[in-house]
Inverse folding.
């Protein structure tokens, strides 16, 4: 058998090897996961990791990066490095809560709509499509302006924007699965509709949600940063990347590039992390789903 | 030329590299097909018969690995480049697939399928001439030539299969591989298609390799039958020898286990046990765990192929008979 | 009750969706006449075979008798009670007594449910067994009956870990766990390997004898009916054309379609197969949206009588004891 393997490799080196053993995809997932774990640690252990209190003036304003303040200070003399670390908390907290609320709205509605069909399905789909077609950030702005600042309110504004995504994915999956033979089998043994939905249909549609979830989290962080950038997000002095971006950008003309760069980098990195992770998970899950047939 | 070998397969080994490990799908299979002969290759799922068919046209998936010799027109097809192989596919060796719906391009009219196939191999033929050839092909298989203007989905299942046969035969190949050509069809349509294949075989003087799990289908069409089990060719002989005088225990058991229509015979016989895991095949004979006549040697050593009364049998029960050897040629 | 199942003039017409233009122009709805007026009965403990090709309506008939779909017309009587328009709770409760074994064992099992749980589910639904432990014991016993041993190991397996034959045993176990009176086997062997078919056919026979089951055995493989069916109905394009025992159907088929079907089935015996006279009708089964007038088979029938077979639908006649045919020529 070893002989075959060696001959084989010498015949089809490179791309085929990667394709079969999946290391191409594996690397992306691995990098994505590493970035995410990194930020999670930052968020959870912020008090231990950050050198200074991020809401308090600790030095002169707008000092460039040096030995004591690695990322420099902002216009109020606060340590940018500590603010970036603590900012991870807000970003991740709001993103997770928003996505959770969005899923809590979208998934049950999608299940019911996809299974029952008919007029109910048409109406709900129409409403969801309307929300979906609205530019996300603008809708979030409108809702946030009405609800006001605060972690929960911002999470709701973002959740409304993303609920249709969950609704659509689940509803379409349910609509196609409900004609599968094992669903008919469940009906044939006398199961009630609710039981069919929860035990036979839901487990088979959830894998598709995992990918959406991860990509959503990336999006949610961007939207939250956007809201804060526009001043509709978390109220100061809570450290927030979007707010710091907006703040930092004001002083770029005074050549204070560090106030803008580091929060910006943090946003880019975490969004990349979620995206790479969801890419990889997608590749991993979809072959499994196909294999079942 | 009747009675000379059209295609010779020697010591064919096909392995697939999968996440589970290396699957030995076809192991040490040798046989030949003569001019104007029909060989039926029968076996159950996982026996390797489709892999063999695909290897003859070199359309195995990328994670496959082939060793051995497939001798056709003096060349070893295994060592042929893709470019040279393309000159053979469709022109000299052709394939009829099981499911015409997935093997015909749904957005191409049937006439375009023909034109494309014909002009790929014979670019000197104009589109009008190619269409005329397509019309003749449709007539030969019993479809109205006007239907060339249709798309595959507009034809019924049986007619799609006829269209695929026409496409496979339009360039008059010497050798046609039919991989489960009637499995997805109704019984009466199946009978129609088999009649058609018989007629075409006579008319175009082709050799056919008929891959199927249905022993009734090969009884109709095949001159010789090869029985495959778990990647091994366990028995090969004329269709009458195989049916009336099966020599390998698997062949015998298989024939007995098929539900038959003989009156009064209500005994149901089956083969106990399961197929072996081909990523870890048994050491000796691959059938030994389920064989009613198993001996010690069967567990230890893979049996060679013996020549027994005109059939070739891969079984230790015939130890003492002449062993069939296939030499590696140095051609190709 | 002598007759467990009785079906009278059963019809199922599936409506085709109309385009907007067709709706506006009030074009009458087109229907697929999958089952177009069939009547038969199955006695307690009997196995009735339903044989036909695709488009014959045999699968739809199976679903209709179990009320998995609603009939367009006709009557269905189960165990003396009419169930034609049963719905809701009473329909659900009745599922305990009538079950189905599907054709595709992989598709019929929930990929995310352990097979033990899948088999236990009907017990839960119908309240059989006083607690979970007792139900699991019942499942273990059933797993042993269908030869999935050791039962404790198989209980926790998922469908994708099993072979095709094993999956079908799970489907059978699930269908029989509530001890139903009536079981529909819808091409239950078609997707299995040839050598596994006999094994599962034997299992179906053993279970029938042990539990005194009544089967409706739907298949396109005539040979399997010999081993298990007491009587056979042959269907063509939504109608029953012939009814009789295996010997009647196979040795003295009366209807031209039955004759064609029998001669088309390939025999593994090369001498018999090559010398067999094959009565292959021309063309294919017509579209059930517009079935031919009169006798459905007349356009393809080599013996069709002009003006009679194309105009009048033949009635079912008894031509010998318990052998019925719907044909003008008999």
């Amino acid at each position: 058998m070893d002989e075959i393997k060696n001959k084989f490799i010498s015949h089809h080196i490179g791309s085929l090897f990667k394709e079969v053993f999946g290391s191409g995809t594996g690397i992306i997932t691995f990098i994505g996961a590493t970035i995410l774990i990194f930020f999670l640690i930052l968020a959870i252990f912020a008090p231990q990791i950050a050198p200074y209190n991020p809401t308090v003036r600790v030095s002169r304003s707008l000092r460039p990066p040096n030995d004591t303040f690695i990322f420099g200070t902002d216009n109020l003399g606060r340590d940018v490095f500590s603010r970036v670390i603590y900012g991870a908390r807000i970003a991740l907290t709001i993103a997770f809560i928003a996505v959770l609320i969005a899923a809590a709205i979208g998934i049950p509605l999608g299940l019911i709509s996809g299974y029952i069909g008919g007029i109910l399905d048409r109406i709900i789909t129409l409403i969801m499509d309307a929300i979906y077609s609205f530019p996300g950030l603008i809708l979030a702005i409108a809702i946030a302006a009405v609800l006001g600042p605060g972690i929960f309110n911002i999470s709701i504004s973002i959740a409304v924007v993303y609920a249709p995504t969950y609704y659509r994915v689940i509803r379409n999956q349910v609509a196609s699965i409900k004609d599968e033979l094992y669903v008919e089998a469940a009906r044939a043994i006398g199961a009630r509709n609710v039981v069919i939905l929860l035990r036979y249909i839901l487990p088979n549609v959830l894998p598709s949600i995992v990918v959406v979830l991860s990509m959503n989290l990336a999006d949610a962080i961007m939207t939250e940063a956007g809201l804060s950038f526009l001043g509709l997000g978390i109220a100061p002095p809570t450290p927030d990347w979007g707010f710091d971006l907006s703040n930092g950008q004001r002083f770029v003309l005074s050549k204070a590039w560090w106030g803008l760069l580091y929060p910006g980098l943090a946003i880019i990195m975490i969004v990349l992390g979620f995206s790479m992770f969801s890419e990889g998970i997608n590749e991993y899950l979809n072959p499994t789903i196909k294999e079942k047939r | 030329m009747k009675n000379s070998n059209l295609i010779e397969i020697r010591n064919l080994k096909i392995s697939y590299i999968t996440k589970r490990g290396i699957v030995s799908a076809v192991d040490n299979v040798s046989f030949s097909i003569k001019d104007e002969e029909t060989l039926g290759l029968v076996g159950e799922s996982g026996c390797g018969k489709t892999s063999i068919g695909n290897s003859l046209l070199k359309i195995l998936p990328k994670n496959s690995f082939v060793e051995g010799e497939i001798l056709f027109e003096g060349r070893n097809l295994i060592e042929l480049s893709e470019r040279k192989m393309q000159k053979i596919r469709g022109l000299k060796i052709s394939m009829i697939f099981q499911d015409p719906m997935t093997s015909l391009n749904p957005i191409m009219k049937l006439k375009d399928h023909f034109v494309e196939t014909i002009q790929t191999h014979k670019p000197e033929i104009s589109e009008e001439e190619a269409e005329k050839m397509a019309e003749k092909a449709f007539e030969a298989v019993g479809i109205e030539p006007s239907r060339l203007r249709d798309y595959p989905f507009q034809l019924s299942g049986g007619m799609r299969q006829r269209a695929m046969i026409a496409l496979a035969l339009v360039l008059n190949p010497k050798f046609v591989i039919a991989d489960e050509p009637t499995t997805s069809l109704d019984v009466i349509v199946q009978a129609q298609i088999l009649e058609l294949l018989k007629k075409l075989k006579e008319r175009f003087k082709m050799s056919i390799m008929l891959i199927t799990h249905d022993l009734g289908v090969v009884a109709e069409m095949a001159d010789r039958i090869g029985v495959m089990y778990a990647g091994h060719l366990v028995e090969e002989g004329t269709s009458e020898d195989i049916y009336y005088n099966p020599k390998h225990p698997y062949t015998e058991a298989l024939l007995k286990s098929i539900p038959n229509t003989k009156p009064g015979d209500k005994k149901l016989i089956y083969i106990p046990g399961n197929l072996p895991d081909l990523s870890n095949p048994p050491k000796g004979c691959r059938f030994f765990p389920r064989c009613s006549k198993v001996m010690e040697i069967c567990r230890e050593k893979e049996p060679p192929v013996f020549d027994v009364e005109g059939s070739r049998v891969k079984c230790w029960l015939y130890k003492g008979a002449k062993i069939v050897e296939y030499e590696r040629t140095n051609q190709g | 009750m002598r007759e467990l199942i009785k079906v009278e003039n059963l019809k199922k017409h599936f409506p085709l969706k109309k385009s907007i233009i067709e709706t506006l122009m009030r074009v009458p709805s087109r229907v697929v006449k999958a089952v177009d007026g069939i009547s038969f009965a199955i006695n307690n403990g009997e196995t009735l075979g339903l044989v036909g090709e695709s488009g014959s309506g045999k699968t739809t008939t199976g679903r209709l008798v179990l009320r998995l779909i609603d009939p367009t017309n006709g009557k269905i009587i189960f165990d003396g009670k009419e169930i034609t328009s049963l719905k809701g709770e009473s329909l659900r409760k009745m599922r305990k007594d009538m079950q189905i074994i599907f054709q595709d064992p992989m598709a019929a099992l929930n990929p995310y449910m352990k097979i033990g749980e899948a088999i236990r589910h009907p017990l839960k639904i119908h309240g059989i067994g006083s607690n979970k432990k007792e139900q699991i014991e019942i499942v273990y016993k059933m797993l042993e009956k269908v030869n999935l041993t050791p039962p404790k190991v198989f209980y926790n397996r998922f469908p994708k870990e099993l072979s095709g034959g094993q999956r079908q045993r799970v489907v059978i176990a699930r269908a029989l766990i509530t001890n139903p009176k009536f079981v529909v086997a819808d091409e239950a062997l078609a997707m299995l390997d040839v050598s596994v078919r006999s094994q599962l056919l034997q299992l179906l026979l053993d279970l029938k004898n042990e539990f005194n089951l009544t089967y409706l055995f739907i298949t396109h493989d005539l040979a399997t009916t010999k081993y298990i069916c007491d009587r056979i109905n042959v269907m063509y394009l939504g109608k029953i054309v012939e009814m009789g025992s295996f010997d009647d159907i196979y040795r003295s088929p009366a209807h031209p379609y039955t004759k064609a079907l029998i001669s088309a089935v390939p025999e593994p015996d090369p001498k018999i197969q090559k010398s067999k006279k094959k009565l292959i009708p021309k063309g294919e089964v017509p579209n059930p949206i517009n079935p031919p007038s009169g006798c459905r088979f007349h356009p393809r029938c080599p013996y069709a009588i002009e003006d009679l077979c194309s105009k009048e639908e033949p009635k079912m006649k008894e031509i010998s004891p318990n052998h019925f045919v719907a044909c003008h020529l008999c």
